Amino acid sequence: MEERMTSKKGSENINTQIRKQENSLAISGLAVIAFGIWTVIKTGLMLLISPEEFNAQFDIDELTQEIAEADDITAGILTGAAAAGIIIAMAIDLFIRLKVGMAARKEGMGGKKMGKGKIVLAVILSLILMTSVVGGTMEIINSGLDDSMDTRMIAVLIDLTALSACVHLLYSARRLRKLRKEI
What we know:
Blueprint: H1 2-49, H2 51-58, H3 61-69, H4 72-108, H5 116-143, H6 149-182
């Protein structure tokens, strides 16, 4: 009798842990989506409000100089190509984050399990964010005190938070799979 009570209690404990991990996965998925939307908004505002800061952040001064030295037709083509490249990159980034985030939310809410492809996308996203955090930190260290240091520090902190959400998503998905195998 005592043995039955222990296994029932253990099962309840596992079910509680599963619910906790499902909740964590759903919240992490929402965070990944939110940071994707924030990235698009931030980039759009940077382009509209402060193109100089955008140029400094993405090191496109050489392209800007080439556009200034080119004739009108070439300058128009280069500007259009740069804008199209930025828009395409932001669309791909947002698409990946939406796919990963929505799959995590669906699984976290008791729906279909995240596929391996979405897990691979989450790992790639984590690596990209890690590279961004390290690169931004190195840029802050190497640039010293200048006018855009506060903007760079905020960008690194936001990328670090997005990275932690993505890593937490991966952890929750893995833990959830292990817990479900125990049942």
